[in-house]
Amino acid sequence: MSTTTTTLGEPKGATMDNFMNMTKEEGHTPEIQRLIDLHAVYNDAMDGQLILAPINLQAPGKRILDSGTADLRGVHSSLSAQHHYFGSDIEAEVFPAQPDGIKHFQQSLQEPWPAELRSTFDLINVRGSLAGSSPKRPVEVIRKLASLPKHGGWIQLMEMDAISPPSNGPAMTDFARMASEVWTGIRVGDFANANQLKPMLEEEGLQNVAERRIVVELGKKAKPELRDLEH
Fold first, then answer.
1. CB burial class (10 A; 0-12, 13-18, 19+) of residue 115?
2. pLDDT: is 8 or 12 the higher one?
3. Distances, alpha carbon 189 to alpha carbons 97, 133, 137, 185, in Å
4. Which tens digit of pLDDT belongs to each residue from 171-214?
5. Contact between residue 163 and residue 6 where contact means Cβ atoms under 8 Å apart
6. What angle (nearest 5°) sits at the alpha carbon of residue 197, between those of residues 192 and 201?
7. Residue 156 and residue 210: Cα distance in Å, rounded?
């Protein structure tokens, strides 16, 4: 299952390693703040329902992985403690000092997942992290993610799609065009990749794949409390 999706990434010479090195030099503060803001925007746009997969969360003992978890603001932030939570990220330095019962481990989306984790999860959530596919295409990451859910488990992708947004003012229109040009320039593709994730999941043998598009209000249309976000 996926919400509105697109893909980001960078080619050789401008890789995610360069990006992570840059954030490391700044103590990861800008990246963590970006993820905090991203979580707030997603949570607002989805009315607090961050899990759209039809999984029975009333039954305890679910194994839930939040990939790209960083500082913990993932799907587990809205759930009870009756499940088993895991969080992975490419950079271990962004993990919180007090994980509150969440098992963290370092993992790149480009690398094969540990054998002991394959076919073990009820839900795998990935939000705003498919830039980690760079310099490869997102299909390589999705192929590896497809090894993680157990029978009856779900993968949920939450990514931005701006190839066909509602009409915007000149500033947002310029931003969307600029972002499209940048992403094309770094060889991952333009916003059209957002519309390719559903068939990518199907090609990897996942069933009951669905897509839901959620409009996020930005700029002057955003709620006052969201306008004050740092990024």
1. exposed
2. 12
3. 37, 12, 8, 8
4. 777 877 777 776 666 555 554 456 678 888 999 999 999 998 88
5. yes
6. 160
7. 10
State the SS3 of the chain: CEECCCCCCCCCCCCHHHHHHHHHHCCCHHHHHHHHHHHHHHHHHCCCCCCCCCCCCCCCCCEEEEECCCCCCCHHHHCCCCCEEEEEECCHHHCCCCCCCCEEEECCCCCCCCHHHCCCEEEEEEECCHHHHCCCCHHHHHHHHCCCEEEEEEEEEECCCCCCCCCCCHHHHHHHHHHHHHHHHCCCCCHHHHHHHHHHHHHCCCCCCCEECCCCCCHHHCCHHHHCCCC
* Cβ–Cβ < 8 Å for 213, 3: yes
Determine how β-strand 63-67 pairs with β-strand 84-89: parallel
Rounded CA separation 156/149 (Å): 11
The pTM (predicted TM-score) of the whole model is: 0.80
> Do residues 91 and 20 make contact, with C-beta atoms less than 8 angstroms apart?
yes
Instruction: Give the C-alpha separation, 156 to 144, whole Å.
Output: 14
**Three-state DSSP string of 176-215:** HHHHHHHHHHCCCCCHHHHHHHHHHHHHCCCCCCCEECCC
Q: Which two tokens stand for residue 152?
A: 């009856």
